[in-house]
Design a protein that fits this description.
Helix content is about 40%, strand content about 20%. The protein is an alpha/beta fold. It has two domains: about 5-125, Rossmann fold, CATH 3.40.50; about 135-230, Winged helix-like DNA-binding domain superfamily/Winged helix DNA-binding domain (Arc Repressor Mutant, subunit A, Orthogonal Bundle). It has a five-stranded parallel sheet with strand order 2-1-3-4-5, sandwiched between helices. It has a four-stranded antiparallel sheet with strand order 6-7-8-9, covered by helices on one side. Strands 10-12-11 form a three-stranded antiparallel sheet. Helix 2 (about 35-45) packs parallel to helix 3 and helix 6 packs across helix 8 (about 195-210).
Length: about 230
């Protein structure tokens, strides 16, 4: 597996270490040192994946870069790379649409495994079941184009929000535990915790439910996890 990646990192030593490791594995890697430099690169090129440091110098930090990428028209996988291990920082990064999160200091083999896993998901998603649709009442999910419509109006979802919705909606009425959803949506090598699932469920409810505080579509099964309402529930 090879592809063009972008590594956004201001520390020269870390950048040299990571770039050498990725290039040995066949990846072509561009580097940006600051947020503005990264955004300038992205205006002209679309990498297969962005490794994005959270703590960048200057006024444009990693979170702002992540937000800008997710507001763009093209989906680009993002792995947040940071020295900060605060749970709140991880949640913010995931809420903004990052696909994964790794904390410095990290093992290069772990980083490579995460890069490959994210790229496999991105490639398989692009190749699978073109134009197939799920229709669930007023909700329509296009699995080929990864578009979602509610009452015929488009709904903007991050990649993980979309993947989570598809898992639940494809099995109406089935109860999924948080750990099962972590494995199916984020993968077996994801090192986050079950709160990641809760955050994404909350975001989906705000986008799909008339009253997110009293959901009728994505239901909580207390002590277990979540399910997409069966016809008799909705």
């Amino acid at each position: 597996m090879s592809g063009q990646l972008l590594f956004v990192e201001d520390d020269d030593a870390i950048a040299a270490f990571v770039l050498a490791g990725l290039e040995r594995e066949g990846f072509s890697v561009a580097r940006a040192r600051t947020g503005p430099e990264a955004l300038a690169y992205l205006q002209s090129k679309v990498p297969e994946l962005v490794l994005l440091d959270l703590m960048l110098p200057g006024e444009v930090d990693g979170l702002q870069v992540c937000r800008t990428i997710r507001n763009g028209e093209v989906y680009i996988p993002i792995i947040m790379v940071t020295a900060r291990d605060e749970a709140a920082d991880k949640i913010v990064g995931l809420e903004l649409g990052a696909d994964d999160y790794i904390t410095k200091p990290f093992n290069l083999r772990e980083l490579l495994a995460r890069v490959r896993a994210i790229l496999r998901l991105a490639h398989s998603g692009a190749e699978s079941r073109h134009r197939e649709r799920l229709r669930l009442g007023s909700l329509e999910i296009d699995l080929g184009t990864r578009e979602v419509f509610l009452d015929e109006r488009p709904v903007s979802l991050t990649r993980k929000e979309f993947d989570l919705l598809v898992v639940l909606a494809s099995h109406r009425g089935r109860v999924f535990g948080r750990e099962t959803l972590l494995q199916q949506v984020w993968g077996y090598d994801f090192l986050g915790d079950s709160r990641t699932v809760d955050v994404h469920i909350q975001r989906l409810r705000h986008k799909l439910e008339q009253d997110p505080a009293s959901p009728c579509t994505i239901l909580t099964v207390h002590g277990i996890g979540y399910k997409f309402a069966a016809e008799r529930d909705g």
